[in-house]
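Problem statement: downstream parser choked on a complex file, so we are re-checking the raw output for the iron/sulfur cluster run. The parser issue turned out to be on our end (a line-ending mismatch), but while we're here, posting the original submission so the record is complete.
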Amino acid sequence: MKLSKSKYCLGYQCKKILWLNKNKPEEKQEIDNEAVLENGTNVGELAKQLLGEHVDIEYSDNLSDMIEMTKDYINKNRTTTITEASFDYDDNFCSVDLLKKNGDKYEIYEVKSSTEVKDIYMEDASYQYYVLRSLGYNVTRVCIVTIDNTYERGEELDIHKLFKINDITDYAQERFATIGDDIAQIKEEGDQREEVQTPISEHCFKPYECPFFQYCLGIKEKNVFDLRRVNIKKKFKLYNQGYRTFEELMQSDLDNKLKMQIDFVIDNKPDLINYEKISEFLSTLTLPLYFLDFETFQQSIPLYKGTHPYEQIPFQYSLHLYNENRELEHKEFLAEANIDPRRSLAESLVRDIPRGVCVLAYNMSFEKTVIKNLAKLYPDLREHLLNIASNIKDLMKPFSEYSYYSKDMQGSYSIKYVLPALYPNDPSLNYHNLEQVHNGSEAMATYASLGQFTKEEQQIIRRNLLEYCKLDTYAMVKIYDRLVEIQKIHARQRVRNDQH
Ligand code: SF4
């Protein structure tokens, strides 16, 4: 088996992954990775400028071409910086993100869009060090380049402040003594005929969730790994104690709320409704009632003055409202492409939401944080914005407090579970029926790329973004309506009971 950087990292996590990749690829499952903000490409491109002038080794399907080109540059230049410099030692291939040559000394720079140096990055860089050193290169420095999220952008982007260079030379040198044996073992097990036997454990989720987990777990019925609101450590503890299926878990020491999650599924229980609690929550709300939802995006490379890497930048909101006559209205905002959207969004928000009105958000800490950040930024709007933030109430409360619980929520009180549990099979509330944008991650990516399209195309994309966000607040309206309906049914029942 030939290794590359990424294959080595997979094998480092678990040797069985490489075996399964080769022998049972059909068992691989899609991993639902939340909000991939931006792939590393932009970061990688920008980081190329970090060491000044450089030459690029262009990607080729024929890796030997890349290796030959690298040799050529190295031989012809006493000092140089090469990106994607490529090497192979004993069927261990690697491309170094940035290789600096100064005379007979070499420095390796591995670029990551992360803000921290993870163990797996140190392994990645150590693998490169192993390849180059084994080939006889005198590598004097090994570094991981990460993003410094404390950096605040000025008028111009300062890449020397944006990037942080973390020296891990000592680690790579120490690792050199053992990594060769690890590589040999990864290859040997990856190539063996019989299936590699590795028991599942926390390593299946560290550093990355393994796409073969369901296969290795081998339990078809509902089990401990289907539980929500339990961390992976606790799940493995229960699993190793022999509490695996939902039936077995009922005998464990799980708390009552978690057992309820299981019990509702096993016994197919009807919805649990605490009428008093729901009425109590509804009594805190007043008309006009505003339903607010923001969309934000994050970028590893801050685009606007005063922003930090990975800061949440709001670009859109939807606002449904029940006016004093209980009629439903709708307002919305979506920023133009390629501009800092925050000022125009903040101005629009204070136009749309008067002071002192009741505002509902679902999981309100997010909306509150967005508004408070805007208030810090714009002193002239501060008082009004903070007033809006202070009047937000959380529509998630009746669900997070189990005033309403249905087995279809599967232990979650996220709106993506609560909504279909309350309105099963309602096509008007089905996000899959939307065009192009179906979730927050897609909204984020779609807005971030908006400026690349023609005016006509942008119109269509904008309409899709608006429809998506509108559904978010319409869903909140429907959840609120259902709670009101429940309250009314209960009130009627009480009158009937009193009459008897
Ligand atoms: S699920 Fe775990 S044991 Fe199975 S291949 Fe993945 S990491 Fe290895």
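For whoever reads this later: The pocket of iron/sulfur cluster is lined by residues 14, 16-17, 20, 198, 200, 203-204, 210, 212-213, 216 (CB under 6 Å).
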